[in-house]
Amino acid sequence: MKLLEDRIRNEGIALSDQILKVDGFINHQVDPFLMKEIGDEIGRHFDEKNITKVVTIESSGISPALMAAMYLNVPMIILKKQASKVLNEDVCQTNVTSFTKGTSYELTLSKKYVTKEDNVLIVDDFMANGEAAFGAVRLLEMVDAKIQGVAILIEKSFQPGRERMDKLGIEVFSLARIAKMEKGNITFGKADE
Ligand code: 5GP
């Protein structure tokens, strides 16, 4: 998606050959107009898949996931990273290791909101090692939901997440694919269409 690639080129900061900072429009300050375009692009791509729920992982996936859910006219579900005192209903949980923090968290889904009747699209901001997306997949498999695909804003193709997801036979739709990064320099690969 040219619009997103341009923003990354102009405002993204490659902190190292592994970590890209996009705090000015995705992760800290959020550009709602960009998110609307992203949501529409994701929505159009999955329009024929009869999606019934869009699922994301808190917190940076929420903005694009909400916009995609709006386009597809379905609810959005946020997988929780933190135990909540009010989330005392029937839940499923799985352990995920955070790429950026190196720590682990229990990803949690209330069984009330996704069931075996659902056709689910997962949306997240980054794909690195794929741990977050795999955590979402495991939770959705626990409730027997059908996974129609994973939409990612920024895939770092030199990290293994995409290939692992391909091996599982789950479609990954990445709006921007980074082939290579060095401090201060970003090289794009061909985005998914
Ligand atoms: P994964 O689970 O695929 O290894 O990493 C994905 C998660 O880690 C994303 O949800 C995102 O929050 C975070 N992440 C991974 N790589 C980056 C990065 O280069 N920059 C930022 N800001 N977050 C990242």
Please sum up the structure shown.
With 193 residues, this protein is α/β, with parallel strands linked by helices. Helix content is 31%, strand content 32%.
Care to describe what's here?
This protein is an alpha/beta fold and 193 residues long. Helix content is 31%, strand content 32%. Strands 4-3-7-8-9-10 form a 6-stranded mixed β-sheet, sandwiched between helices. Helix 5 (131-142) links the parallel strand 7 and strand 8 (146-156). The longest helix is centred in the first third of the chain and has 14 residues, at 32-45. The protein is globular and about 45 Å long. The mean pLDDT is 95. It binds guanosine-5'-monophosphate. Residues 19-21, 27, 57, 60, 99-100, 124-133, 161 line the site of guanosine-5'-monophosphate. Residues 19-21, 27, 57, 60, 99-100, 124-133, 161 line the site of guanosine-5'-monophosphate (5GP).
Structural class: alpha/beta
- The topology string of helices and strands comes to HEEHHEHEEEEHEHEE
Assign a percent range to the helix content.
Answer: 25-40%
Low-confidence stretches: none
Cofactors and ligands: guanosine-5'-monophosphate
Q: How do the strands line up in the largest sheet?
A: 4-3-7-8-9-10
Mean pLDDT: 95
Beta-strand content bin: 25-35%
Q: Count the helices. How many?
A: 6
Instruction: Calculate Rg over CA atoms.
Output: 16 Å
Main beta sheet, described? 6 strands, mixed
Total E-strand runs:
10
Distance from N terminus to C terminus (CA atoms, Å) equals 9 Å
Shape descriptor: globular
